[in-house]
Amino acid sequence: MKNLQQLCRPNIWSLAPYSSARNEYAGHEAHVFLDANENPYNNPYNRYPDPLQTEVKAAVARVKGVAPENIFLGNGSDEAIDLPYRCFCRPGIDNVVAIEPTYGMYKVCADINDVEYRPVLLDDHYQMHADSLLAACDDKTKIIWLCSPNNPTGNSLDRDEILSVINRFDGIVIVDEAYSDFSAQPSLRTELSRYQNLIVLNTMSKAWGCAAIRLGMAFASAEIIGVFNKVKYPYNVNQLTQQQALEALADPFQVDKWVRILKIERERMIDAFRLLPICLEVYPTDANFFLAKMTDAQAIYDRLVEQGIIVRNRTRVQLCHNCLRITIGTKSENNELIAALRQM
Ligand SMILES: *Cc1c(COP(=O)(O)O)cnc(C)c1O
Fold first, then answer.
1. C-alpha distance from residue 28 to each of 23, 25, 45, 131, 296 (Å)
2. Beta sheet of 312-313, edge-to-edge order
3. pLDDT per position as a tens digit, 22-69
4. Which atom of ligand 1 is nearest to the CA of 103?
5. Which residues form the pocket of ligand 1, taking CB atoms under 6 Å from any ligand atom?
6. Going along 95-222, which residue ranges are E strands?
């Protein structure tokens, strides 16, 4: 595998990061803050937040079983998806490889950063094969994007195939585990110490019920986290988000309860879909949503919209022709969807 200097863009490797006022005093007890040109009034909103989110990382470390130095926190996973491009990929030169279909942000960020994006089609069971991904790589491939459980298909990728990619690829492998709380598969973040080239993504937006606060996380080697910290905006996670995250992280049992309910509802919804004449197939899922092949996804989608019920139409996505992606809602929301579909 390439070392981190070989993987980084040269300008990023040699970057002298911005040093904020709050960075420089760190570690000392202080009570008079005349260093950051803040307004002394309007407490608690007048002060810049902790640039490295020390308290939140300590709480994430406890809940996720990952050391604080292996944690990056960002403005949603969106930031943790964009940063690897900015750190590792030279615009117009380097490329990335990803499974297809998958989450759309990997390609959007590649396009924004002028990095070639190489999609590799999953098989008929939405499974990934290490051989075909690696065959798409060349010496300019810096990142391989995996997503497990995958969006929009819902299934987990085969763990042995994922490990095969990590073991054989000489660049960075990013596994997006946004939905891992809903899956019985163990998270790959527990394997971090074994793999210097692995980045695992997670988010507060799904199982944690905190999409509004915008908090995403990346777990990786302390060296990779150090590069991210250099490149990120100094105050990338605002104070309100940090406070709300601390509150949520103090009660992980609430998340367990939500996940348990949503999984029961998921199975109930899948059973109901399988009985619908307009549903041809429901695909296996490890997430809080499922993908269903319908007789005519566009027509069904349109009729649901007329009734104020919005699902995700994925019919134009490769391998997802005539598929709708259904998020599991509350019991009454789910019942409303099923009732509407039974009338069609
Ligand atoms: C929803 C989702 C995310 C979450 O993104 P945030 O920016 O953290 O809200 C990340 N990855 C995948 C695959 C998703 O489906």
1. 11, 6, 22, 52, 64
2. 279-282, 289-294, 323-327, 312-313
3. 777 766 788 899 999 999 999 999 999 999 999 999 999 999 999 999
4. 13
5. 76-78, 103, 147, 151, 176, 178, 203, 205-206, 211, 216
6. 95-100, 116-121, 141-147, 172-176, 198-203, 216-219
Short-list 199, 101, 107, CA closest to 150:
101
pTM of the predicted model as reported, rounded to 2 decimal places: 0.97
Structure tokens at 192: 């971090």
Q: What is the pLDDT of residues 251-281, one digit of tens each?
A: 999 999 999 999 999 999 999 999 999 999 9
Peptide bond into 101 cis (omega under 30): yes
Give the position, in ligand 1's atom list, of the atom nearest the Cα of 75. Answer: 7
Closest atom of ligand 1 to 215 CA is: 8
For the record, the structure tokens of 13 come out as: 């490797």
CA separation (Å) from 194 to 2, 73, 166?
A: 15, 22, 10
Number of residues that this document lists for the chain: 344
Between CA 136 and CA 124 the distance in angstroms is 19
E strands in 109-194: 116-121, 141-147, 172-176
Report d(CA 253, CA 90) in Å as an integer: 43
Q: Beta-carbon neighbour count of residue 113 at 10 Å?
A: 18
User: At what angle are helices 105-112 and 76-88 packed, to 10 degrees?
Assistant: 40
Asked whether the CA dihedral 241, 244, 246, 249 is positive or negative, the reply is negative
